User: Fold this.
Amino acid sequence: MNVASSTSHQEISELARDLVSEIQDLYRNAEALPMRHLSAYTQTRNHEVTLYVRVFSSMYGQARFTRALGLDVLKRNGRVLVISNIEFAPSLQGRGLLKALMVEAIEKIEDLDIVEFENVLNEKLTHDLLHLGYIHRDMSVPFGSMFKVVR
Assistant:
C-alpha cells in the first residue's frame, strides 16, 4: 500500500486492522510466558506507523490504576494495552487512524479492560485523546499518561 495516498477510510481501517493483528500476536506471546501477569513489549514499524506497546493482565496493572479507578473496576483476568510511543507519517496525520486503531483494538482484543497512552506530552494528541474519552492517570497534572476503561 502506498502510504502517501492511504487517506481513504477503507485504507485507514485496513491499516488499523493490521496493527491490531500485530498487537494480538504480542498478547499470544505474553500468554506463553510462565506467568501471564508478566508484560511483553514490542515496537512495530508498519506502513510508516511506529508503535511501542506493552501488554499485560489487569491483575498486574492494578497498582497502576488503583488510585484513579479503585480496585473494583478491573477484571481479574482482563488485559491492559499500554502505548508508550505512537508516531504516524505526516500523510496519516488527521486521517482518523488513532480512532480507527482504538475501535479495532477494543473490538478485536478479547478481555481488554484498559487502554493507556503513556507520557502524552503533545498538545494535539492530548486533545484528541480527551475527545475520545481518555482521562489523565494523575489528575493533578495536565499531561502525562492517559487511559480509558473500555469494558
